[in-house]
Design goal:
With 44 residues, the chain is mostly helical. It has 1 helix and no strands. The longest helix is centred in the middle third of the chain and has 17 residues. 0% of the residues are buried.
């Protein structure tokens, strides 16, 4: 059992639009002690 943050981004969203959200999710994970990375998966 664990906590997962899944960011699903549509192909119509520009990188400049989703990048700040991604950075905010990383900061939140670090502040909450959730910053262990087990893997990275891309369905793109």
């Amino acid at each position: 059992m664990g906590i997962f943050i899944n960011l699903a981004v549509s192909h119509s969203v520009l990188q400049s639009e989703w990048e700040p959200v991604y950075q905010e999710a990383l900061e939140l994970a670090q502040k909450l002690g959730l910053a262990e990375v087990a893997g990275l998966r891309s369905a793109g």
